[in-house]
Write a structure and sequence with these properties.
The chain is built from two helices and nine strands, in the order E-E-H-H-E-E-E-E-E-E-E. The protein is α+β, with helices and mostly antiparallel strands. The N and C termini lie far apart (163 Å).
């Protein structure tokens, strides 16, 4: 009897994909995992695949557009918050600058007042202690703040005598006008003007005045 030779079946390589998407068969009968897209870029690329249905393409497009919209909204929100914080910072800075200017003006005003008070005290001392502004005596120089200052005299109206002197004690200055009117009784008026600086062109120059009548 002839023995029939049984031919062994040669394995045929198949590359058909599993219907459930688990992988593809390899030549050894196993499965090779199919990579899964991790971001929207892969989804958008897959949307151009002709094998995808229309619904799958629309779904992939919506996912990509939604991601871009979220990024745009986040950027807009960041810009709005930054603008709000910048506006608040500028407002606080403006208020601070105004407060500093106001505080500086108050300090300079005090310096001008002290200068006017010094001039008035000098005139009172020389009038009461030395009679420097007497209507019967000519004008004479005065000594104030350890220096001698020139006194000018005028009589604009009969019976009225005016003596004027200025003190330039850097950085503060003062101008004093003493007016005497014959009576009876004799009336004396002292008007002292003080300045925080002797620079007449300084825009921040402040003037304060004191008037004494007796």
């Amino acid at each position: 009897m002839k023995r029939s030779k049984n031919k062994e079946a040669t394995p045929v390589a198949s590359a058909s994909a599993d219907s459930q998407g688990r992988g593809r068969k390899n030549t050894e009968g196993g499965f090779t995992p199919t990579p899964i897209p991790n971001d929207n870029v892969d989804i958008l690329k897959d949307s151009d695949d002709p094998s995808m249905t229309r619904n799958q393409r629309e779904t992939s497009s919506r996912i990509g557009v939604s991601s871009q919209s979220e990024r745009g909204f986040t950027l807009l929100l960041s810009v709005l918050i930054s603008s709000l914080l910048l506006a608040i910072g500028l407002a606080i800075f403006n208020i601070t600058i105004k407060e500093l200017i106001l505080s500086s003006s108050g300090r300079e005003s005090q310096f001008a007042f002290y200068a006017a008070d010094t001039g008035a005290e000098c005139a009172l001392f020389h009038d009461f202690q030395r009679g420097a502004f007497s209507t019967s005596s000519p004008a004479a120089n005065l000594e104030c703040i350890d220096e001698e200052w020139e006194v000018t005299s005028s009589s604009p109206v009969p019976g009225t005598y005016t003596r004027t002197f200025s003190i330039d004690s850097e950085p503060h200055c003062m101008t004093v006008v003493v007016t005497k009117e014959e009576g009876p009784p004799v009336t004396t008026s002292i008007e002292a003007r003080g300045y925080n600086t002797c620079d007449t062109g300084n825009p921040r120059r402040v003037e304060r005045a004191i008037r004494v009548t007796y």
